[in-house]
Amino acid sequence: AGQSWTTDVIIIGAGPVGLFSVFELGLLDIKAHLVDILDKPGGQCAELYPEKPIYDIPAWPIISGSDLTDRLLEQIAPFGAKYHFNEMAVAIEKVEQDDGTIKWKLTTDQGTTIEARCIIIAAGGGSFQPKKPPIPGIDGFENLGAGKGVHYAVRKMEAFRGKRIVISGGGDSALDWTVNLANVAERITLVHRRDDFRAAPHTVAQMRQLVADGKMDLVIGQATALKGETGHNLEAITIEDNDGNELHIDADAFLPFFGLTMKLGPVAEFGLNLHENLIPVDTEKFETSTKQVFAIGDINYYPGKLKLILSGFHEAALMSQQAFRYVYPEKKLRFQYTTSSSELQKKMGVK
Ligand code: FAD
């Protein structure tokens, strides 16, 4: 069995919105634990577009997904949240206290349990999973380490320096990474079923130029088998062209970009009201119709909702006000500015 914890609030999802909640809650002396199935903080920003620039974060004219995550981690560091990575939140359960009040208990797939006054669902697009190509034994070539084997996302381009890479797919991710990695990799082969690409025309043109210049290869066909030592090393990829001919390409890494399935996952089983796989909330407290359970960020729904990071930040601030009332029912909430409150500055560790 896993460990048991008690805290003030539990945040499901360590995406940008879950992370910023730690700050808003922390200013109100509310301690938090975060649970995320990913192995790192940042949610979509970290997993889907770490190196892509975002242009609409207030006061950051341009910032990459990974830099935004790093800045958020720096900002929330003083509040000492506890992170549970690589764990899926699978169930929540109401626990009546002797004094008639309510607590919530969350259980993860690792058997960890956490009890708290409130649950904050910041689950974004849900526990998203890459769509895998139907290649037998592909699992055995996953998690071989940086720059080796099968990867469904590029976390660090440098990991692929000097490697022989096969990229598969015809959308933006496949084409973006083909063009971006062309200068980094020793050799890139792009494989696609048809000589027709869904990606942005400009990127497709860049790819065609690289092919014309002899700087990469384009193969029309489908990857059908991976060769090498399962669990250890990828050596080559078998590709079948549309006439049924087989081709073997030596490769260190295989990057299939077949899109992601964004599934709500276990949150759908929490017994909450749902509206087209989103969780309806009010716009005063961002609480769900289940008391002491909140939903903020991409996962929630209300009239006029915009799935933007900045909306999630605002929702986190208002949610925290109500969470305070549940965590400290006897205390009075005082509105204070971080600029002028020495009390808040002490909490943030301002010297
Ligand atoms: P997410 O970032 O989705 O994080 C949710 C986290 O919850 C994930 O890490 C997931 O693993 C975890 N999770 C879910 N369910 C469970 C569970 N049951 N157990 C454990 N963990 C769970 N927004 C902008 O404002 N500006 C932009 O320029 C912009 N560009 C974008 C570009 C791309 C390519 C994409 C894909 C999105 C972009 N967005 C942009 C949208 C932005 O990324 C999202 O609005 C933002 O990530 C939402 O944050 P979140 O914290 O609500 O959720």
Automatic annotation (TrEMBL):
Keyword Oxidoreductase included in the entry's annotation: yes
Domain of life: Bacteria
EC number: 1.18.1.2
Pfam families linked to this entry: Pyr_redox_2
Domain named FAD/NAD(P)-binding: residues: 8-303
Keyword annotations: FAD, Flavoprotein, NADP, Oxidoreductase
Residues annotated to bind FAD: 36, 44, 49, 89, 128, 298, 339
InterPro entries, per database record: FAD/NAD-bd_sf, FAD/NAD-binding_dom, Fd--NADP_Rdtase_type_2, Ferredoxin-NADP_redctase_2
Reaction catalysed by this enzyme: 2 reduced [2Fe-2S]-[ferredoxin] + NADP(+) + H(+) = 2 oxidized [2Fe-2S]-[ferredoxin] + NADPH
Cofactor: binding details: Binds 1 FAD per subunit.
GO function term, MF aspect, one: NADP binding
Cofactor(s) in the UniProt record: FAD
Oligomer and partners: Homodimer.
Family: Belongs to the ferredoxin--NADP reductase type 2 family.
The protein's name in its UniProt record: Ferredoxin--NADP reductase
